[in-house]
Structures are given as C-alpha cells and as structure tokens.
Write a structure and sequence with these properties.
- The complex is a heterodimer.
- Chain A is an all-beta fold.
- Helix content of chain A is about 0%, strand content about 50%.
- Chain A has strands at about 5, 10-15, 20-25, 30-40, 45-50, 55-60, 65-75, 75-80, 90-95, 105, 110-115.
- Chain A is globular and about 40 Å long.
- Helices cover about 0% and strands about 55% of the residues of chain B.
- In chain B, about 35% of the residues are buried.
- The chains are: A mainly beta, B mainly beta.
- At the A-B interface, strand 4, strand 5, strand 9 and strand 10 of A face strand 4, strand 5 and strand 10 of B.
C-alpha cells in the first residue's frame, strides 16, 4: 500500500515552453502534497506545500508564477513549470502525506531537461 | 528553519565493512526518517525513528532526541548499499520534511 505515482519520469522540452508533472496517490487520500527539487549531487529542497482545495504555500525564493501547483483532488497534485529555461533543468520529486507518523510517500521523480 | 547536517558527505567502503552515518539537527523534532536514494532517484524509506533504536536486517538506526542527533549503521556492506543516504526531519506532525545534505556511499566489491 501507500503508492505515489509520478509522471512523466523524464521529459525534454524546448526553452520557453511549459511542462506539467503529475503526482497521484494511488491507494490513499492525500490532503497534503509536497514538491521538491534536486539538482545533481545535491539534497532535496522543498519548493512548495499543496493542500487539497487551497492555494499552495511556496518556500522562500521559489517563484509561484513560474511553478504553478494545483491540488484539485485528494489524489492528484500537478506542478507546471511555465516558460521553462535551461536553469530549470532538475529532478523534481513529489511526496504525499498519508495518515500515520511516518506517513510520507515519495514519487519516483521526474527528470526535466530544458534545451 | 531547522538545520539538518549529515556526515560524512562521502564514504567509500570495501564490501563487508561496517559504517556509521550521522545526522545532527538544530531543534526538537516530531519526525525523523532515514532514506536511501537509489541510482534512479527513487527514495526508499529505511526508518521512521524520532527516538530510540530500530533494526532491519543489516541496517540499524538510533536517535538520541535530547542530544539532537541520529545514527545509521550499515553492517556487512554490500554493493547494493551504494547510493545516497538522507536524513529528514519534521518539527511537527504532518509538517514538511527538511532534508540533510546526504551521505554518498560507494561500496566496492
């Protein structure tokens, strides 16, 4: 149980285009989802926290107009990278919060390359 | 916000060796977890351990909450143990997890 599906697993896009990444909790309801970004050989940095039905809370320094987060249902959150640029190339990982003390389940990540 | 520091940053082991990874955190935590990130990026949850000691096969972990640190022990290391080990903490139930910088482990045959 407690599976989080993240798609796509990798994507290459042209500079200036937008890319949408989906994060789904398959067998549980997630009122809260988290989006992280990881640059090569670095740690995971939290970008934003999304709560179902409300606006996401962004971490300091993360552009909310560039990284659009939608959490329209209890099982789906999406991250859209708008007007992507090469510096947005990174590994993006979502996490869904489920009930229980260790209730953080991570998706398998999306490797974004902007050319 | 809370600071999480891991040491050492890199570790090279010969297969069969034992090792200890450390995680220091700057404030009281409600949640502490150890993860292993495999070469494909997937995070595998190893332990949920805000306090006390747990063991799972060749891995064990100890958290001394009053002194704000946690240790992950790897015994009889295998090449499949290679990867990056992260410690992550949350200061309140349901809160965001803050990750340490990770320890990159390479186990040589």
């Amino acid at each position: 149980g407690a599976v989080v599906s993240q798609h796509p697993s990798w994507v290459i896009c042209k500079s200036g285009t937008s890319v949408k990444i989906e994060c789904r909790s398959l067998d549980f309801q997630a009122t809260t989802m988290f989006w992280y970004r990881q640059f090569p050989k670095q740690s995971l940095m939290l970008m934003a926290t999304s709560n179902e039905g409300s606006k996401a809370t962004y971490e300091q320094g993360v552009e909310k107009d560039k990284f659009l987060i939608n959490h329209a249902s209890l099982t789906l959150s999406t991250l859209t990278v708008t007007s992507a640029h090469p510096e947005d190339s990174s590994f993006y990982i979502c996490s869904a919060r489920r009930q229980g003390p260790d209730g953080y389940t991570f998706g398998s990540g999306t490797r974004l390359t902007v050319v | 916000g809370i600071q999480v520091e891991q040491s050492p940053p890199d570790l090279i082991l010969q297969e069969g060796a034992n090792s200890t990874l450390r995680c220091n955190f700057s404030d009281s935590v409600n949640n502490l977890q150890w993860f292993h990130q495999n070469p494909w990026g997937q995070l595998i949850n190893l332990f949920y351990i805000p306090s006390g000691t747990k063991q799972n096969g060749r891995l064990s972990a100890t958290t001394v909450a009053t002194e704000r640190y946690s240790l992950l022990y790897i015994s009889s290391s295998q090449t499949t143990d290679s990867g990056v080990y992260f410690c992550a903490v949350a200061v309140a139930a349901g809160n965001k997890l803050t990750f340490g910088g990770g320890t990159r482990v390479l186990v040589k045959p």
